[in-house]
Every structure is written in structure tokens, then in C-alpha cells.
Write a structure and sequence with these properties.
By secondary structure, this protein is mainly α. About 80% of the residues lie in helices and about 0% in strands. The chain has 21 helices and no strands. Helix 9 runs antiparallel to helix 12, helix 10 packs antiparallel against helix 20 and helix 14 packs antiparallel against helix 19. The longest helix has 30 residues. It is globular. The N and C termini lie far apart (about 60 Å).
Length: about 450
């Protein structure tokens, strides 16, 4: 073989080798040719260590939608029960705990919301290490057991322990695996999936208060609590059979740094701060205004914004809905006089505030490694739990100091939500600046 022939053969082999390498790379690396047109900013702002190929998310399928349906039941039983705390605030003040002030009674729903969120980092770490199964089993038992015990209570401390501690710890163990598992099945339609799951809490907020009220009137408080507990038990059995994570557990040693390290990221810390301030005021109307319209409309508020968020950007949608909630509190609830403005406020506020529950986990998932989603989502909700703990007692004290007038409560609610809305804008700025784009 002459030198020219050898040269041509070498060139052909080199070309074939390069082509083979190109084909291998194409089969291993995700195809990002379409990302610029569908999610350019999201891709740009995604952490470099995300580590999970977006194309590996099924974004549908039987297992994915079964997980969503099970998570829907989890949210019905956990957050849906939390959504009807206003019913118990009013009932206890006129019945078993009528000798206590509204701010004292408010510690029961406050502890309920606090323990619902406070265990987030711990449950999140356990989820990342072992998956959702054992958390769901333990949570189902504690939630149902706590409500059964509440049916036997007569003293303040008993209600505090059964309904304010035991039951919400169980609800917390149900809530976090449901939300975290959902995020592992969806990427492009993640906000929509979270919205469908979160709508379970709205449906629970509609059905459970009406159910409890009617059974109390017919059969008394003890059987109302037992009936609710049996309903939740049936739904939780289904949830335990269907909620699964797409990713296998990856046990890692416990480290305090793992919980604190995310706060060094500007976008994450601003998102958590915004959620904390917004949540400080968000639950006050649900506690002190008992109108089923809030929960009726929030079903749509937790699904429609999720669908829109996947198209226009999750941070963009959160900013719009949070400012809308603030405007409704200060512009409609504050000056409201008579039944009609209150009903209108409840309907519109239920829609706008409902977006927070579905979009907050989606925001964290967007800026996080999906393999540590449990810890990062849990840490955010743990911070929120502090606002949940003190928000209702502060609201009750403001009402008591004004002799039953809600004006100061309404101002406090609006100002805190305004602060959260502004910080959401700052969180978006930290990701993409001021340019108008999908974030």
C-alpha cells in the first residue's frame, strides 16, 4: 500500500471514529435543540449540578398519573384538613373552649399548621434516603389516631396535643412524600402536576368543613371527628398503594450542612424568604373568614395557574398571583362592608392564593437538583412553619385588642403579603434580571 492510500485510509478511519463518537454522545447526552424555544430561561437558570436528564422524565403514563392521584388524596387528607381549621377556631370559641380568649384558642390551629410544615427538613431527608413508603405509613397512622383522640377531648391541653400536635405531625408525614414524589415524574408539565395534586387540598377544604358541621349538628362533635377520620383512612389506604417515586432512594449520611447549604444560593434564599413573608398573611383569611367559596374557587386557583406557569414561567405566575392576593386583601377585604363584598373577596382570594400551594414546590424544584428535592422543599416549608406558628395568634390578638374589629388584622395580612410579593420579584431578578422572558 502506497503512502497516499495509507493516508486516505487513515482519514476514513478518523472520520468514522469521530462519527461514532458523535453518535455515542448523541445517545447519552440530552437533546437540547428544542430547549431554547420552549424553556430557554429555565434552562439557563437551572443549576449546573441538576444531574438528571430532562428527557428522562416521562411527563405522563399510568404510573405517573397513579402517583398524582394518590398524591391528590394525600393533599385532601393533609392540607385539606388544615384548610378547615377556621371551622374549629369558631366552634371551640363557642363550645368546649368558650372560657378562653380567641388568641389562646388560635394556638390550636397555629400549632396544627406549624407541625404540618416544621418537620419538613427531617421528613425530606428521610424521603431522599428511603423513599415515600414508610413515611406515608407512619403519617397515615398518626393523622387518623390524632383525630380519633380529638373526638374524646374535653380540656384545652387535650385538644392541643391531639389536634395541634399528633394529627398534624401525621399530616406532615403524608404531605411531603406526596409532593416530592410528584416532582420526580414530571419536568415540562411539573407545575400542572403540582396544581392537580394541590387541588386535593382545596376539595378537602370544601368537603370536610361541610361534613364536620353537618355531623356535629346531627350526631355531635365526637362522631364528627370519628367520621372524618374514617374518611381520611380510606383515602390514605389508596394513597399508600399508588404514591411512588420514579427515582430509587439514595441513602446518604446525615449532615447539618446539607440543610443550611442551600440558603447560600441567592435564588433559593430569596424564594424561601418570599414564601415566609407571604405565608405569614396568607392563611389569616382562611382562619378568620369561614366561607366555603374560598375553597371552592381555590380548586381552580391551584390547577389553572399551574398550567399557565408551565407556559409562561413559574416565577412569573407566582409574582402575578401573589400581588393579586395582596391587592384583594388591601383593596377589597379591608374596605368591605356587608355580605356581598366578603363573598366576592372570598371567591377571588381563594383563586389567587390557591396558586401559592401548587407553585411554591414547583419554584424550589426548578432551581434544585431533583435528587435532593426532599431536603430543599422541606427546608422551605420548615421556615414557613414559623410564620404559621405565630401568624394566627397575632391575628387573634389584633382582633381582641380592637374589640372584635378586623381592620388591624386585615392591614397586617396585606402588608406581610406585599412584602412576600416584592421578594418574589427579587428572586426572579436573581435568576434572569429584568428582561421579559419565561422564568
Amino acid at each position: 500500500m502506497d503512502s497516499s492510500s495509507a493516508s486516505r485510509a487513515s482519514t476514513v478511519r478518523e472520520k468514522d471514529t469521530n462519527q461514532g463518537m458523535s453518535e455515542t454522545d448523541a445517545s447519552v447526552l440530552p437533546d437540547t435543540s428544542n430547549l431554547e424555544t420552549t424553556a430557554d430561561v429555565e434552562k439557563a437558570t437551572k443549576p449546573a449540578f441538576a444531574g438528571i436528564d430532562p428527557s428522562s422524565f416521562p411527563d405522563g403514563g399510568v404510573q405517573a398519573w397513579l402517583a398524582v392521584s394518590g398524591a391528590f388524596c394525600c393533599l385532601f387528607c393533609s392540607f385539606g384538613w388544615i384548610n378547615c381549621i377556621g371551622v374549629f377556631q369558631a366552634y371551640y370559641q363557642t363550645h368546649q373552649l368558650s372560657s378562653f380568649s380567641p388568641s389562646t384558642v388560635a394556638w390550636i390551629p397555629s400549632l396544627t399548621v406549624f407541625f404540618m410544615f416544621a418537620g419538613g427538613p427531617i421528613w425530606g431527608k428521610l424521603y431522599d434516603n428511603y423513599g415515600p413508603r414508610y413515611l406515608l405509613l407512619a403519617g397515615s397512622f398518626l393523622h387518623v389516631f390524632g383525630l380519633m383522640m380529638a373526638s374524646l377531648c374535653s380540656d384545652y391541653y387535650q385538644f392541643l396535643l391531639a389536634q395541634g400536635v399528633c394529627s398534624p405531625i401525621g399530616a406532615s408525614l403524608i404531605f411531603y412524600p406526596a409532593m416530592s414524589s410528584t416532582g420526580t415524574w414530571f419536568f415540562k408539565r411539573r407545575a400542572l402536576a403540582f396544581g392537580l395534586v394541590a387541588s386535593g387540598s382545596s376539595l378537602g377544604g370544601v368537603i370536610l368543613p361541610i361534613m364536620v358541621d353537618n355531623i356535629i349538628a346531627r350526631s355531635g362533635f365526637p362522631w364528627a371527628m370519628r367520621s372524618a377520620a374514617f374518611l381520611l383512612l380510606g383515602l390514605l389506604i389508596y394513597a399508600n398503594l399508588t404514591v411512588r417515586s420514579r427515582l430509587p432512594p439514595s441513602p446518604k449520611p446525615w449532615s447539618l450542612v446539607e440543610f443550611i447549604l442551600p440558603l447560600r444560593e441567592l435564588s433559593y434564599s430569596l424564594t424561601v424568604l418570599a414564601a415566609f413573608l407571604f405565608f405569614f398573611g396568607m392563611f389569616l383569611p382562611f382562619t378568620f373568614i369561614i366561607l366555603s367559596a374560598e375553597h371552592d374557587v381555590s380548586i381552580f386557583g391551584r390547577t389553572i395557574p399551574g398550567y399557565i406557569a408551565d407556559k409562561t414561567g413559574r416565577f412569573n405566575t407566582m409574582i402575578v398571583t401573589s400581588f393579586l392576593s395582596t391587592i384583594l386583601v388591601l383593596g377589597l377585604w379591608l374596605p368591605a362592608r356587608g355580605n356581598t363584598p366578603y363573598i366576592l373577596f372570598a371567591a377571588f382570594y381563594g383563586f389567587s392564593s390557591g396558586a401559592f400551594v401548587s407553585l411554591a414546590p414547583a419554584l424550589v424544584a426548578q432551581i434544585s437538583d431533583i435528587r435532593s428535592i426532599g431536603v430543599r422543599t422541606g427546608s422551605m416549608f420548615a421556615v414557613i412553619s414559623v410564620a404559621a406558628l405565630v401568624g394566627n395568634p397575632i391575628g387573634g390578638a389584633l382582633v381582641s385588642n380592637e374589640g372584635g374589629n378586623y381592620q388591624n388584622l386585615e392591614i397586617f395580612c396585606g402588608i406581610m403579603m406585599l412584602g412576600g410579593s416584592v421578594v418574589f420579584v427579587a428572586a426572579r431578578w436573581s435568576l434572569a434580571g429584568w428582561k421579559l422572558s419565561k422564568v
